[in-house]
Write a structure and sequence with these properties.
Structural class: alpha+beta
Order of helices and strands: HHEEEEEHEHEHEEEH
């Protein structure tokens, strides 16, 4: 199984063909539009209409492909159950613990958390068959990590600790899907998923994600998070 930094490299490199494809479509579209204008000046109206329409179609497809590629930055392809992060939890006081996460792109971050349990949620995008034919598969992005109290009264009254995990991006498909109806044919579903486990003692965990959602598992001894904490 690839290590976490290798998974991050694969995720970034996978978007490059899409960006190149969008650039090719935009370039061909622009060339056809220019050819259409040349035909218009040469008094060839049929060539003008056909070339311009085809050029505008290619430009539209290029913009759509570029929008989807930029909007899905930060999301990771999901074809089966995959490792989303390795987490080390270390209690340092009553209902207080530190959680150190290592992500597939190699980033590491430590968060102070209050609660009896560690809580992580994510956003998951599922595509229709049309988008699958274009090479898009189910994708996910971790959204937040925080604490969860077992007692409802304490959950309501105690200060909440939540930390963002999603990366800043110029476009987000989650938001674009809500704003633009033309994207509906590409999406099967977009939904949130969450998982939480008790934190009673120091532990190493694997946060995994599948097409049905998030889940925690104890980290196998050979993959203990202690190796990359030291």
């Amino acid at each position: 199984m690839p290590d976490l930094p290798e998974l991050g490299f694969l995720a970034h490199s996978a978007s490059l063909p899409w960006l190149l494809g969008a650039a090719v479509l935009l370039s061909l579209g622009a060339i056809l539009v220019l050819a259409g204008l040349t035909a218009l000046f040469g008094l060839h109206p049929l060539r003008f209409v056909s070339r311009t329409l085809l050029g505008l179609l290619l430009i539209s497809l290029g913009i759509l492909e570029g929008t989807i590629t930029v909007g899905i930055q930060g999301y990771r392809s999901l074809a089966r159950e995959e490792l989303a992060a390795r987490i080390a939890v270390r209690p340092y006081g009553p209902q207080q613990f530190a959680a150190t996460l290592r992500f597939p792109d190699g980033r590491m971050a430590t968060y102070p958390i209050s609660g009896d349990e560690i809580y992580v949620d994510a956003r998951i995008l599922k595509w229709h068959a049309l988008a699958n034919l274009l090479g898009l598969s189910t994708a996910y992005e971790l959204d937040r990590v925080g604490g969860r109290f077992r007692a409802i009264e304490q959950e309501r009254a105690a200060p909440r600790t939540l930390h963002p995990l999603g990366q800043q991006k110029p476009l987000d498909l989650f938001d674009l899907r809500k704003r633009y109806a033309f994207l509906a044919p590409f999406f099967d579903a977009e939904y949130g998923s969450a998982a939480f486990v008790p934190v009673n003692e120091p532990a190493e965990l694997e946060l995994r994600v599948s097409t049905t959602g998030l889940l925690f598992r104890p980290a196998p001894a050979s993959k203990t998070v202690e190796k990359w904490l030291n």
